[in-house]
């Protein structure tokens, strides 16, 4: 028993570190937005598009990664992802044109799907009564990689002391990702000893267990394509795409969505005509509501992390190092807040905790909309950290519920919920490209309040539901 617990802790540490490295690579551009804009002669709108594309492909990638991890296991998927994603990291560091930066950043967004892989790994290695807390540790400490990037990469660039210091700093994160991919593969297993890893029979998408759930599932895929449409609109708005190309891509996205909808309907039609065993049933409405809650909580965090260094530079006339250090406080709270959100959900009720946190989050983001250079810097940092604390705790609360929906589809459900986090970030950054930061924060606050209302429809996981999952796993 003691050896098993030791193995659990080792898996938690190694998986959290893998996600930490992924996030560090994912957000290694944020501290250098102003530097890259100045050296390569970019406009503020072009930098905004780079921030947007950095998040875009994580949307479909999280769906696909969820399917792959349920089919092939987190060990192989996480390791391969870390190794492959080092390549666009290197090409970004070497880029000399805007298109090279754009394509590299677009591909790097795929590494944001790494979050989904670890969710399935942690779910396999820890019991249900510790699910929220352990997933909170994984996500909270893993997301701290963005804070490390904001805090340390400018120092590394300064230490190099050349105008290309930012290139060396970003390339270094690619080297770390490449090396750790091999370390992770040699150090972990998909499930504890004497426990079978329940794989999906194929890498196909989720199945609905009622006709109402089928409608919800088809509708849930629409924002995924909508998030990509926002990206196309942003590219067209900054003249990187002509109107004709944009219209053609909109049509293509529409066709792809219709194809996906028809495919889901055909795959589920025969399945729904059979008698579905009780252990196989789960609520798609639960998935949809949690997805919207994550859209608001984590989507806002990603968007704010991307813009906060530049925001503090412009609002308080700070240098890149000072702004990066202050902005890192937004992600620093991950270390405590996300595990705390999971722990509170385990102890005091998942639905109640999530509703309270979403309501508080809406108030705090409305408060952020009033930030200006007239505020004392210390007060601005305090409000920023408070906003991050509550948002991260809400994200932890969301994923404290995900593993309880359907065990052997945890990866796919986490992929859907996680994708909505990226959809939220893309949508919020698109708002930022259209409006001033004050309106940007107000929109996030309004979204959090709407999700607070939606969270009323969440059902608290019952003991009966947990027992049903045990039966389905053969426990």
From TrEMBL:
Q: Does the keyword Transmembrane helix apply?
A: yes
The residue ranges crossing the membrane are 12-29, 49-65, 77-95, 101-123, 135-160, 166-187, 208-233, 245-266, 287-312, 318-341, 353-371, 377-401, 413-432, 438-458
Family membership: Belongs to the major facilitator superfamily. Nitrate/nitrite porter (TC 2.A.1.8) family.
**Keyword Membrane among UniProt keywords:** yes
Q: What is its main location?
A: membrane
Residues annotated as coiled-coil are: none
Q: Where in the cell is it found?
A: Cell membrane
UniProt keyword terms in alphabetical order: Membrane, Nitrate assimilation, Transmembrane, Transmembrane helix, Transport
UniProt-listed SUPFAM superfamilies: MFS general substrate transporter
Membrane topology term? Multi-pass membrane protein
Domain Major facilitator superfamily (MFS) profile: where? 11-463
| Name of the protein described by the UniProt record | MFS transporter
Q: Which PROSITE patterns match?
A: MFS
- Taken from the record, one Pfam family name reads MFS_1
């Amino acid at each position: 028993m003691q050896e098993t617990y030791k193995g659990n802790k080792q898996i938690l540490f190694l998986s959290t570190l893998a996600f930490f490295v992924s996030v560090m690579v994912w957000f290694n551009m944020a501290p250098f937005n102003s530097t890259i804009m100045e050296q390569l002669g970019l406009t503020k709108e072009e930098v905004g598009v780079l921030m947007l594309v950095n998040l875009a492909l994580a949307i479909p990638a999280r769906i696909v990664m969820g399917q792959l991890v349920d089919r092939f296991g987190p060990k192989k998927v996480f390791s391969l992802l870390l190794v492959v994603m080092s390549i666009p990291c290197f090409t970004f560091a070497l880029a000399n044109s805007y298109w090279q930066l754009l394509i590299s950043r677009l591909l790097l967004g795929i590494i944001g799907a790494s979050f989904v892989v670890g969710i399935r790994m942690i779910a396999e290695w820890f019991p249900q009564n510790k699910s929220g807390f352990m997933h909170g540790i994984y996500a909270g400490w893993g997301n701290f990689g963005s804070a490390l990037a904001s805090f340390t990469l400018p120092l590394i660039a300064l230490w190099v002391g050349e105008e290309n210091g930012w290139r060396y700093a970003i390339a270094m994160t690619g080297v770390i990702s490449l090396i750790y991919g091999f370390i992770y593969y040699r150090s972990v297993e998909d499930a504890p000893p004497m426990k079978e890893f329940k794989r999906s029979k194929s890498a196909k998408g989720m199945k609905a267990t009622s006709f109402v759930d089928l409608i919800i599932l088809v509708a849930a895929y629409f924002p995924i394509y909508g998030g990509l449409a926002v990206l196309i609109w942003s590219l067209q708005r900054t003249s990187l795409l002509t109107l004709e190309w944009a219209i053609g891509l909109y049509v293509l996205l529409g066709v792809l969505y219709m194809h996906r909808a028809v495919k889901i309907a055909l795959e589920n039609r025969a399945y729904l005509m059979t008698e579905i065993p009780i252990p196989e049933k789960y609520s798609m409405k639960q998935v949809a509501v949690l997805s919207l809650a994550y859209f608001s909580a984590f989507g806002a965090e990603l968007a704010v992390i991307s813009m906060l260094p530049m925001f503090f530079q412009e609002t308080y006339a700070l240098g890149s190092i000072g702004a990066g250090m202050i902005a890192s406080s937004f992600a620093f709270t991950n270390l405590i807040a996300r595990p705390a959100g999971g722990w509170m959900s385990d102890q005091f009720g998942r639905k109640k905790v999530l509703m309270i946190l979403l309501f508080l989050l809406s108030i705090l983001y409305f408060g952020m909309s009033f930030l200006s250079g007239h505020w004392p810097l210390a007060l601005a940092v305090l409000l920023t950290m408070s906003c991050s604390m509550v948002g991260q705790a809400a994200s932890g609360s969301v994923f404290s519920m995900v593993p309880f929906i359907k065990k052997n589809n945890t990866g796919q459900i986490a992929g859907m919920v996680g994708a909505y986090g990226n959809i939220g970030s893309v949508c919020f950054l698109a708002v930022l490209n259209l409006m001033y930061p004050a309106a940007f924060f107000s929109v996030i606050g309004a979204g959090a309040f709407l999700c607070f209302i939606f969270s009323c429809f969440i059902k608290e996981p019952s003991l009966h539901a947990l027992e049903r999952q045990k039966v389905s796993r053969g426990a």
